[in-house]
Q: What sequence folds into this?
């Protein structure tokens, strides 16, 4: 597939459900060594949105209450998720509870279909997305890169798609760039946020260079030796990748092309380099 022409998709600020978002980096809040490190990482990442699992915070009791207070103090938008849900009904119920707890109708919708890969159950995902959209939610579905699934999610009212790069926590980066490019080409006006599998700043930069709109990162930052430094590195990589996309990347070629063309090379110079010496010289 040919590279996307940035002139055909002029840059504009990231907007999700009509709301401008200051950063193209979304940050997960799980697995950090301490609340203090999390707070510093969020600040270093300059993230405009952080994701929070309702189930995890419920399990933490009063510790969870202090966590929510910390998130509020950071001044970033909270995106509750339905992590851990394995049926559409379970995800719908969790989303409705999250709306009450976090006072938001935004939800990152997850319906997990496989315990080993944590691949989304795309059938349950579409079912839950339709029900939640009809209930007034602004749904950001965690999905595969499958085009037909994306079409169904958009059809039931999702204005944002969150295709995975590779399995959650794998750190393998973008496993199927062709499919992600296909999504970009088919849905030029739909924000595409790469979710899951991003393990290095270079992976995030690659997603931006492909013309995708944002990246959600958790494990790669939270489990780094220096989460704060890694958050800053990801922020820089995303800015660089997006700037490269806007500037217009060169296309790939099958053959070498000299940066200094031979056209216009003086004839005598070519002759001096190719002529064979005469006898006696």
A:
């Amino acid at each position: 597939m040919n590279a996307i022409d940035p002139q055909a998709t002029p840059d504009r600020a990231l907007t999700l459900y009509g709301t401008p978002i200051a950063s193209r980096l979304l940050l997960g809040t799980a697995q950090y060594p301490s609340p203090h490190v999390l707070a510093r990482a969020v600040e270093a990442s300059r993230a405009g949105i952080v994701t929070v699992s309702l189930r995890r915070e419920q399990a933490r009791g009063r510790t969870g209450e202090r966590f929510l207070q910390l998130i509020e103090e950071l001044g970033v938008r909270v995106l509750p998720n339905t992590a851990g849900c394995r049926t559409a009904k379970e995800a719908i119920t969790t989303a409705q509870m999250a709306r009450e707890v976090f006072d938001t109708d935004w939800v990152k919708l997850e319906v997990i279909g496989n315990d080993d890969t944590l691949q989304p159950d795309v059938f349950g995902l579409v079912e839950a997305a339709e029900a939640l959209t009809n209930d007034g939610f602004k749904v950001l579905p965690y999905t595969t890169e499958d085009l037909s699934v994306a079409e169904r999610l958009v059809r039931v009212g999702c204005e944002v798609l969150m295709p995975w790069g590779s399995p959650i926590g794998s750190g393998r980066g973008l496993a199927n760039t062709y499919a992600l490019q296909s999504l970009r080409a088919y849905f030029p006006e739909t924000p595409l946020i790469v979710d899951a599998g991003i393990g290095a700043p270079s992976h995030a930069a690659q997603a931006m260079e492909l013309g995708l709109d944002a990246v959600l990162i958790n494990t790669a930052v939270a489990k780094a030796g220096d989460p704060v430094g890694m958050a800053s590195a990801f922020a820089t990589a995303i800015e660089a990748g997006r700037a490269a996309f806007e500037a217009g990347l060169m296309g790939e070629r099958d053959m070498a092309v000299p940066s200094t063309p031979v056209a216009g090379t003086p004839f005598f110079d070519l002759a001096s380099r190719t002529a064979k010496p005469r006898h006696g010289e």
The chain has a mean pLDDT of 87. Strands lie at 15-16, 19-20, 25-28, 49-53, 77-81, 106-109, 138-143, 162-163, 193-195, 214-217. The first strand starts at residue 15 and ends at 16. The CA atoms of residues 22 and 48 lie 5 Å apart.
